[in-house]
Specification:
Elements: H1 3-16, H2 23-36, H3 47-67, H4 69-87, H5 95-127, H6 132-151, H7 164-176, H8 184-194, H9 199-227, H10 236-262, H11 267-288
């Protein structure tokens, strides 16, 4: 992979990780286009290319850490103190400490549910990278979800009222969003809103559970590629370039998306994914005929 391709794919990831229009589908489509233009790349559904996709996903975790640095800092301090108070029976648990302990446990539940869905369906989901027509259908679904989030009435449930069933539903949404074409952020935020979670809380919880989910997926994929002896087929420099570019671009993209979410303007993304889905479907049918 040459350096400018790594930069291009890093930009795609940085923008579309947070724009709720599915970064995986955009990466796969761009890779198909580059290959069609004669650029030497592994197949989008190969273990090597999926590893690159996961590395640039990790890059956008840096974006999350930067944008939510204050919330994450408070969370880490309060959660650690809360768990220490649980261990030390002589210390009284504070309300805020108990809240962050609960949120940690709910996050673990969501990630576990994602794993229960994602592991059995891993091969099926990865095969979609090579099938643009299916990506067009999942993009259409993403557009419907995004449109729906804008017309919902004000949500009432905050973090203190959040229960186990919401964590399970968000975990299911994240598991389904492993399918290319379904936006992870868009799907998890949409499902959280559907069950009553407020917009700000839905966004923060969605990006909170993205951190362990993406890190775990990257670790497992890295092991798989290493065992297959394909780790060196993409240069380390290309991985580092893609990682860094995705992190920098992702910061600006995440700030923009949060403003649109809080103002209930996700429907603008619906138009985009529907147009893109139609183009992909038309192109795919034309190639078949």
């Amino acid at each position: 992979m040459i350096w400018w391709v790594a930069i291009l794919l890093g930009i795609i990831q940085g923008i579309f990780m947070f724009f709720p229009v599915s970064s995986t589908s955009h990466l796969a489509l761009m890779q198909h286009w580059l290959i069609g233009m004669g650029i030497s790349l592994p197949d989008p559904d190969s273990a090597e290319m999926i590893l690159f996709d996961l590395v640039v996903h990790v890059g956008t975790l840096v974006s999350i850490a930067v944008v939510f640095r204050e919330s994450l800092s408070i969370y880490l301090r309060q959660a650690i103190q809360g768990f220490l108070n649980l261990v030390d029976s002589s210390k009284k648990q504070t309300n805020i400490g108990g809240l962050y302990v609960k949120l940690t446990l709910l996050g673990i539940v969501s990630v576990a549910v994602t794993g229960l869905i994602g592991f059995p369906m891993k091969a099926a989901f990865e095969s979609i990278f090579a099938q643009p027509i299916i990506i067009s259908l999942t993009l259409t679904t993403t557009g419907i979800l995004l449109w729906w989030t804008d017309i919902l009435s004000d949500r009432k449930i905050g973090l203190r009222q959040m229960g186990l069933w919401i964590a399970i539903i968000v975990g299911v949404a994240q598991g389904l969003a492993l399918m290319p074409g379904l936006s992870r952020s868009g799907t998890t935020i949409a499902f959280a809103l559907f069950v009553g979670l407020q917009r700000k809380e839905a966004a923060e919880f969605s990006f909170f559970i993205a951190i362990p989910t993406i890190l775990g997926a990257c670790l497992l994929q890295g092991i798989e590629v290493y065992m297959a002896g394909g780790l060196l087929s993409i240069p380390v420099t290309s991985l580092l370039i893609g990682f860094s570019v995705a992190a920098l671009i992702g910061i600006a993209a995440l700030y923009l998306v949060l403003n649109l979410l809080y103002d209930a303007k996700f429907r603008f993304f619906s138009y985009y994914v529907w147009i893109l889905a139609a183009i992909i479907a038309f192109t795919s049918v034309g190639q078949i005929l």
